[in-house]
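hey can u check if this looks right to u? its 346 residues, i copy pasted from the old doc so theres a chance i mangled smth
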Amino acid sequence: MQNNTILTGILIILCVLVTLIGYTNPTTSNILTIEPSTVVVNPGQSIQTAINSAPVGSTIIVNSGNYTENLKILKNITLTANGTVNLKQINIAYTGCKVKGFSLSGDYPIVITSTRNVEIIGNNISSNLNGIMSTGTNVNLKVSSNTLIGTNPFYGNNMAFEGPLYNSTIQNNVLSGAEFGMLYDAPSKNITINNNVVTNNYDLNNTRDPLVHTGTGIYTVAGSTDFKILNNTVINTRDSIAVEDLGGGLSTGFIIENNTVIKSFNGVWAKLSNSLIQNNNFSNNTAGIDVVGTGNIIKDNIIENNSVVGIALTTKQANDYNTLINNTLTGNGGPYYTVGPGRIVM
């Protein structure tokens, strides 16, 4: 009898202790930790459902097949194609997303909205309007190793960055067949455009010389700063590398280096200040370099067989100047000419 009483007392004490322990840490006792996972989607299954249910940080692998969904990515995930995966559209509106290896077609195959640290890698895109488009302000965007083919030379852009873009890299892409290869339509800063191939940009709305290559390869608006345009090949365009003044003054701090531009109207057509154009090859165009602005250094370029002029410089103020150093000019309609009150330093 005494032993039963002792045992009952011990059990009561243990129950009280367990209860007290539960109350001492009530916030952690009900926490469920969900780890990132790898999810595989097969034909007939929904990619969007996989995205919605996957924990943040997960990788979703989509196996070969035709998928009709227009996807919306609103969390940090990696979306990867395994084999040939055909899609219509991917909309990205969250930080840190990665999209790799898909085949997309339509008006707006990839749209990126107000994000940072997004990567678009190794996709094949055929677009009627904008192949890859960003809207809003985007930071640390990486667009690499994609192939983009435009199907609408009236309005199409292989890539269109409609809002400000900062600290971003566009590299190793192949672009063709649209009116604009790359369109930077808002002042942007610290952009690297490296080792891209841009060809056959048309503008069929052009009435002066229709049905010829009259689109633009790489186009930025005034007010942009610190662009590095390096190691690109641009063929069969109107303005291959263009920095245009739309009422915002000159762009500044550009480095245009080691590019090859051939069979275009202008190799470089730019409104720039305090920028460097060096070690490029501008050949078999109408004009090699056509620059409006001051404080620019143009050096060590090969400029040959351009039908009208090798280098054209325009200044607006008497104290404006541009520096020419060690350029090779051969076979051009004229070596260079200047317009305006400024001077050339040679």
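The first strand starts at residue 38 and ends at 41.
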